[in-house]
């Protein structure tokens, strides 16, 4: 009989963040016959541990001392996104004008013709 077993793997990164992988191993009489990763995410020092697996909470509580959290926040200040400057705002598109249609029922002479403007010197 194959039995699903929840697994949690925690990797401690150089900056004391935790890379967490959760998954399921499928066990058949002591042998793993398959596995599935259900999620992967990073927790940074000072992040909330609410809803985290017990293994993650235990490691974070042992590792994330107040000094570690303060050093992490000093090295990684929050990023503030400034609003766009007026010169960066894209103007709205001009309305598109449909060209007049010429078909067998409308003689070509009945269509308003616009003069051709060219930058080329006239001969």
Question: Layout of helices and strands, plus pairs?
Answer:
Blueprint: E1 2-12, E2 18-28, E3 31-43, H1 54-63, H2 66-75
Antiparallel strand pairs: 1-2, 2-3
Descriptors:
123 residues, alpha+beta, three-stranded antiparallel β-sheet, 16% helix
Largest sheet strand order: 1-2-3
Distance between the termini: 92 Å
Number of strands: 3
Shape: elongated
Relative strand content = 25-35%
Structural class: alpha+beta
For the report, how would you describe the main beta sheet?
3 strands, antiparallel
Poorly predicted parts:
none
Q: Taking all residues together, what is the mean pLDDT?
A: 84
Tell me roughly what share of residues is in helical segments: 10-25%
Number of helices: 2
**Overall radius of gyration:** 33 Å
Give helix and strand order, one letter per element, not per position: EEEHH
Structural commentary:
With 123 residues, this protein is α+β, with helices and mostly antiparallel strands. The chain has two helices and three strands; from the N terminus they run βββαα. The chain has a three-stranded antiparallel beta sheet with strand order 1-2-3. Strand 2 (18-28) and strand 3 (31-43) form a beta hairpin. The longest helix is centred in the middle third of the chain and has 10 residues, at 54-63. The protein starts with a strand and ends in a 48-residue tail after the last helix. The mean pLDDT is 84.
């Amino acid at each position: 009989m194959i039995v699903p077993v929840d697994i949690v793997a925690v990797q401690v990164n150089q900056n004391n963040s935790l890379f967490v992988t959760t998954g399921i191993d499928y066990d058949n009489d002591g042998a793993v016959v398959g596995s599935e990763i259900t999620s992967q995410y990073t927790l940074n020092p000072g992040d909330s541990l609410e809803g985290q697996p017990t293994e993650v909470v235990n490691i974070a509580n042992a590792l994330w001392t107040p000094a570690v959290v303060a050093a992490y926040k000093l090295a990684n200040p929050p990023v503030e996104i400034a609003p766009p400057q007026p010169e960066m705002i894209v103007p709205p598109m001009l309305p598109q004008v449909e060209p007049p249609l010429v078909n067998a029922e409308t003689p070509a002479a009945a269509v308003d013709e616009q003069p051709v403007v060219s930058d080329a010197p006239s001969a």
